Amino acid sequence: MVVNMPPVHDPATLLAEHVGWMRSLARRLVRDADQADDLAQDAAAATLQSPPSDGARVRGFLRRILENRHREVHRARRNVLRRELVAAQRERGQSAPATDDLVARVQTQRRVAGLLVGLEEPYRTVLLLRFYEDLPPRRIAERTGATVATVKSQLHRGLARLRARLDADAGGDRGAWLAALVPLCGWRATSSVATFLTATWIMNSKLIIVSSLLASVAVGIYLWSSSPPTAAPSDEAPARVAASGFTGGGGGADSANVVAKERAEPRRSERRALAAPPTSAPASYSVRGRAVDGDGRPVPALRVCLRGDTNVDTLTEADGSFELAASSESGTVDVADPAYVAVRTGAWNRRGDLQPVLVVAPAIQLAGHVVDTWGRGVGGAQVVVALPDDFATRFRDVLDASYEHIWRAETAADGGFALERVPAIVGSELRAAHADYAPIACALPAHSDASMWLEMVRPQVAPDHALRGLVLHADGRPAHGAYVALGLATTRSDATGAFTLDLSRCGPGARLTAVTAGEQPAVLDKPQPRGDGPDGWPAVVELRLGPPACSIAGRVVDENGASRGAGVRVWVAESTNFGVLATLPLQLEAMMAGGAVPDEAVQALAQPVDPDGQEDFGSASPALRPDALVHWVETDADGRFELGGLLPRPYRLAVLGKAFAFGDLTDPIAAPAQGIEVVVASASTLPRLRGRVVTASGEPIAGVRVTPWLPAVSVDTPVRGGDAHAMRFFLGPAATTDSDGVFVLSSLPRRHTRLHLIADCIVPSYTGVEDASDPENFVVPVLARAHLEVEVAPGGREPPDAIRVRDANGLPVTLLEMRADGYSTHDTVPLRSGRSGVLTVTSDATTLEFLRSGEVVDSEPIEVHPGALLRIRR
After folding, report:
1. 8 A C-beta contact, residue 347 and residue 360
2. What are phi and psi for residue 192, nearest 5 degrees?
3. Residue 337 vs residues 26, 38, 164, 305, 342: alpha-carbon distances, Å
4. How does DSSP assign 70-87, residue by residue?
5. Measured between alpha carbons, how far is 483 from 499 in angstroms, rounded to an integer?
6. What percent of the chain has pLDDT over 70?
7. What is the band of 263 on the pLDDT scale with cuts at 50, 70, 90?
8. CA 687 to chain centre
9. With the CA atoms of 373, 376, 382 and 386 taken in that order, what torsion angle do they form, in degrees rounded to the nearest 10?
10. Eight-state DSSP code of residue 351
């Protein structure tokens, strides 16, 4: 792609050649459109802090909140601008500017030109084209090869950066440079100017407030109707609330049961510097934490803010420490400097014991295209920023109270992508993955780059390993986009129905399966006698899809035949394995029902895998929407449902009522079937469960969050490089233990319901409702949380490459990498550059083992203490 760039100018040339462009730029700078986001977020925060008692009147309630906040901000903004713009002239009693005013004005204008020239790309280019060459966004898009929407976004962000740098240049006194630029705009510095600026800002903000308010309504309704986690981030609230603090399974050897999260980049309105809290909400809590860079070093003089019910900010000290005064009981610590982006945001909660740690890095912008070998855009590719493998080992701080982020984009139909704010961390990679192409990776640029060009190629298969075939519909038409699996490998058919599988990647698989939505699959076992193709297969395999998929339809009722109502989830309890895509298993019924392959699976294609490895790949997350791993339907008001995507065989159906009100499994039902009744008897539900969470010595633990969950699907299967475990589960309403360690849960399915227990002071624990022999006195012992860090000095002939921990009985102790929004579990942890990073261990750990190539080469006794960090140096 050819990008026409404007000529490079120095500040003196810019000032000498034209004044008009500076006047236009100054007008845009003093109209601070970013304040619109402040208004919308303040209104949302006030709404969440004092929600309406009647959920049906949310719209009117929000309207009143927004109008009141609008008036307050209008008055405050008007007063501030009046003081900033008029104070100097009132003091002198002059109508004409004094000489020092003129000098200050010229100096400010020179600073503006200098800072503009010093802006990073693409902002310098678009601002010069817009204000120096006076081009509209449409023309700028033509010159730079970007879309108009991208240009507008870059203009907006470029102006925000210019304002931020002017603020920093003026020591944080926006009024200083604002007063110097206003005369250049052709306006008089009077109270009418302040009124005009405020009116302009309010007018411009209305377009933004509409969308912000709608988002606030959605977040508010969700929070009022559910139990939020201890410190949930505000991005994508429903998904994060559901995912907070969970993994699936207790792990096998080296299991990494990672919670799937919504880790999208925080919105701009949540990244900006925030104003002090209103006087009506006095600060009553102290938030202490640290800010570090991507190498774990403290970041001084960094502006950080607390997102949540309060809006406060401050600067970090020389050691990276900060203290924020908050009026809310929880929030998220984020960076408020537009030059930086949070790699991990800090989680704070008044009742928590953990210190929030904020990890930041310089922010860069990336954009470009993903194309094939012919230069055609590849749509639907996943573009992801991958941090260095040793990233988690670089920190000496406990990162349990931090939210992890990823940065990803899906390419448009033309292959275009944009990653607006990503961290510039040395050793990171930019990876692209697509189910039809071989993954690619390149070093992440150190600076912004708006014209990246990533070329993907279709996998090259050696002729003696290539299994070629054709997928056809039942009527003989080519089946475009059908998934084809054999053993450990999966591919898709092209527009002609053709596909190629690399037999060297398939493993010992002998059954070839093709599937597409709405049709029964095509299945072919390796023929006998052996064919004339590679590995005994025919030279060209033909897979013909079957008739339409079957379904089971009926009603969910109680023992009296009355409808169980709307919103009851129905799914198959025992689905059929289809195959694996990268390290994620896929289920046949879910794919026949039209479930999309999760982004997680496509992204995993870009992860390097040792084909001879014995790693365990884990994926466990809440079932938020049907996909190719699990598919469900919900009943209507009369309790009716139709579950499609089924094979002609018997199925046991699982049903789960809203808010975990009831649940059960049916006897086998042969598909297809119509008009059946699924009877959920009252005896299948436990009306009440009263429990008590205690330490190993029987002491009660307050503040433990107890959440019921029920598996929707759980699959264990071999994959390339090891074994995979995938789980999706439904979550129920949570309870929190009181000062006596007591919790109470109501209306739980008796069978298969599990409980997850999490708090800052304990290691995440699991138990089952079926384990409660006495539902009114269910005692749940848990282990305290401690921390361990190991560092081995370089040198020696055979340094260890991993560690393992055991208890006093010689049993392995689970090692955890904790985050505020999930965790990973391991039996062994690799040493990267001799470091383990800070790990979470249970308080019963007694022995540390050093491993090399899986064998113990040394060990030593250890003594860990709850809440403390033990550092081992060798």
Report:
1. no
2. -65, -30
3. 22, 16, 8, 9, 10
4. HHHHHHHHHHHHHHHHHH
5. 9
6. 74
7. very low
8. 36
9. 50
10. T
Q: How does strand 785-791 pair with strand 869-873? A: parallel
Among candidate residues 521, 499, 510, the one with its CA nearest the CA of residue 575: 521
Nearest-CA neighbor of 365 among 337, 386, 385? 385
The answer to whether residue 728 scores a pLDDT higher than 80 is yes
Tally of CB atoms within 10 A around 695: 17
Q: How far, rounded to the nearest angstrom, does the alpha carbon of residue 429 sit from its chain's CA centroid?
A: 18
Give Cα separations from 810 to 802, 816, 845, 846 (angstroms): 18, 18, 10, 9
Mapped onto helix, strand or coil, the DSSP state of residue 780 is: strand
Q: Name residue, tokens 């010159």.
A: 143
- Asked whether the predicted pLDDT for residue 179 surpasses 90, the reply is no
Report residue 688 as tokens: 């009440």
pLDDT of residue 483: 96
Cβ atoms of residues 61 and 47 within 8 Å: yes
Buried b / exposed e along 214-245 (16+ C-beta atoms within 10 A)? ebbbebbeebeebebbbbbbbbbbbbbbbbbb
Would you state the torsion angle of the CA atoms of residues 528, 530, 531, 532, taken in this order, to the nearest 10 degrees?
-170
Two structure tokens written together for 75: 């008055």
Residue 151 gets the label, from left (phi > 0), alpha (psi -120 to 50) or beta, of: alpha
Hey, what are 263's tokens?
A: 């880790």
Higher pLDDT, 870 or 40: 870
On whether the CB atoms of residues 77 and 198 are closer than 8 A, the answer is yes
The CA–CA distances, whole Å, from 633 to 346, 663, 856 equal: 37, 15, 50
Neighbour tally for 761: CB within 10 Å: 17
Q: Phi/psi at 269 (nearest 5 deg)?
A: -65, -15
How far from 623 is each of 45, 261, 532, 768, CA to CA, in Å? Answer: 28, 11, 45, 19
In terms of residues, how long is the chain?
874
Q: How many Cα atoms sit within 13 Å of 56 on the Cβ side?
A: 0
103: Cβ contacts below 8 Å, ≥ 6 apart: none
Listed in sequence order, the residues at least 6 apart from 578 whose beta carbon sits closer than 8 Å to its beta carbon are 483, 485, 513, 515, 521, 585, 586, 587, 588, 591
In the predicted model, is pLDDT for residue 802 greater than 90?
Answer: yes
Q: Which residue has the higher pLDDT, 535 or 162?
A: 162
Q: How far is CA 463 from the centre of its chain?
A: 41
Which amino acid appears at position 619 of this protein? S
Does pTM top 0.85 for this prediction?
no
Position 307 scores a pLDDT of 85
Q: How many helices, marked H, and strands, marked E, lie in the chain?
A: 13, 51
DSSP class of 119: P
Integer Cα distance of 487 and 659 in angstroms: 39
Under a CB-based contact definition with an 8 Å cutoff, are residues 30 and 185 in contact? yes
Q: How far is CA 180 from CA 23, 26, 177, 186, in A?
A: 12, 10, 5, 12
Distance between CA atoms of residues 829 and 785, nearest Å: 18
What tens digit of pLDDT does each residue of 61-70 get? 555 665 566 5
Which among 202, 184, 180 has a CA at the least distance from the CA of 40?
202
Residues 185, 826: Cα–Cα separation, whole Å: 62
Strand 802-807 relative to strand 722-731: parallel, antiparallel, unpaired? unpaired
In this structure, what token pair is assigned to residue 100? 């020092």
Residue 814 contacts by C-beta under 8 Å, 6 or more apart in sequence?
250, 251, 763, 825, 826, 827, 841, 842
Written as one letter, the residue type at 96 is A
CA-CA distance, 732 to 227, in Å (whole number)? 9
Tokens 């012992």 map to which residue? 781
Measured from the Cβ of residue 782, the count of other Cβ atoms closer than 10 Å reads 23
In the chain, the N- to C-terminal Cα span, in Å, equals 53
Q: How many CB atoms lie within 10 A of CB 169?
A: 16
Place of tokens 């496509």: 602
Q: In this structure, which amino acid lies at residue 209?
A: I
Residue 463 identity (one-letter amino acid): P
Residue 409 CB contacts under 8 Å (≥ 6 apart), including other chains = 382, 383, 417, 418, 419
